[in-house]
Amino acid sequence: MGSSLDIGLMHMLWHIIFWSRLCPRTKQPVLRVDPASGRVLAEYASAKAAAAALGLSNSAIGGCCHGKVPSVDGHVFRFKDESVVSTTLNTRTVLCSIRRKV
Question: pTM here?
């Protein structure tokens, strides 16, 4: 048998591997849309790419895509395939928030 430190370390590594597979961080295409007409103004490979191109915070852009904030510095962002992405992200958000509370 290993020491309690070894068992604790193995347990911690198991949780890291388990939750990283359950809550993967994937790049989702992001659209910058006109708030008045809803017309697509630009498409970016990810929130990080949009942030780099526009000089904005990628977490703020992600918050806008998730509907947490209405706009970022006057820009409105949405995930490209909102129907698929929102379902995936809502499931991931719930599971990841459960993980944080444990």
Answer: 0.59
